[in-house]
Amino acid sequence: MKTTSSVEHAAGNANLAIDRVAEMAHQAVDKAAGAAAPTADWLTERGEQIVARGKKLESDSSNLVASHPLKAVGIALIAGFVLSWLFHSSGSIGSSE
Known about the structure:
By secondary structure, this protein is mainly alpha-helical. It has a domain at 2-66. The protein contains 2 helices and no strands. It has helices spanning 2-67, 69-91. α1 (2-67) crosses α2. The longest helix is centred in the middle third of the chain and has 66 residues, at 2-67. It starts with a helix and ends in a 6-residue tail after the last helix.
């Protein structure tokens, strides 16, 4: 009979220990989630700001092209030549030509 009582006592102690570990794990998860929440909120806000800036830039660019089409074509041509020259120059570094 004493063996059964000892086994039951050990099982009870094991259950208490498991409950304590589970509670500690739950607290750790809650703490981690609490620490991550402000960062997630900040990232969401920054993402929304970036999207809004992109839309404004798109709108401003469209309005500029509509109001000055020849100037926009000229700027695009110059930018194309400059980029072509930069990429061509950087591609020839280290080559024997």
